[in-house]
Amino acid sequence: MSNDVVDKLVIFLAKRDGIDKLVKTFQYVSKLTHWHMEATNTDVARRAKLWEVASGLSRKAFRTGRFLTGFNALRRSPGPTPLRRSLAVFANGGEMVYFFFDHFLWLARIGVIEKSLARKMSFISAFGEALGYVFFIALDFIAIREGLAEQRRAKKGEKGEEEGEKERLTKIRGDRVMRLMAVAANISDLVIALADIEPNPICNHAATLGISGLVSAWAGWYRNWPS
């Protein structure tokens, strides 16, 4: 492994989101392992399930205070237009509900508060999560559309001088890739949230949850990996 890769890995794992995506990978790989081995090797399946549960609880503990991120995002830059500001309020508001009630879900699952509250906390947290993802997806699609329009104008030479045009186009394309990664992650996490809100055979299937979790985790890896 080259020194450059090692340096980037150190930077990645120094971030809260970097650690979260790594542990999320552990969580959903172990979920898929449990599902795959359940019928053929019960001991491996049992160990995988323990790893999955431990990873999930670890992520919840590590996200303590994360609900303030949405508040800070709204305080700093809610959006340049009334539509973007409105969508940002619902998106970040949903995320704040998700992370705030996720604290109580974690406490219920480890037995600090009544375990009977776990189902209610899970529903409220997942509902806020799903709401937030819907509006985050809408925001990203608006930004992608605006980026495509700007790219077309730049290619026609309608904006400014030629100098710096290439750099601007590169920046637009890079932003579009990052936003598409965000959309992939948010859609995947939306599927996982729907499994908590309204359990059903499709969303709650181990393969669906496992693949969705890994898509979300790996899209997050891409977005947080040092450039």
From TrEMBL:
Main subcellular location: membrane
InterPro entries membership: PEX11 (IPR008733)
Gene Ontology CC terms, in alphabetical order: peroxisomal membrane
Membrane-crossing residue ranges in chain numbering: 121-143
Compartment(s) where it occurs, according to its Swiss-Prot or TrEMBL record: Peroxisome membrane
Topology within the bilayer: Multi-pass membrane protein
One Pfam family recorded for the sequence: PEX11
Keyword field: Membrane, Peroxisome, Peroxisome biogenesis, Transmembrane, Transmembrane helix
Swiss-Prot/TrEMBL GO biological process terms: peroxisome fission; regulation of peroxisome size
Example of a GO MF term: identical protein binding
Protein task: Involved in peroxisomal proliferation.
Sequence similarity: Belongs to the peroxin-11 family.
Protein name: Peroxisomal biogenesis factor 11 family protein
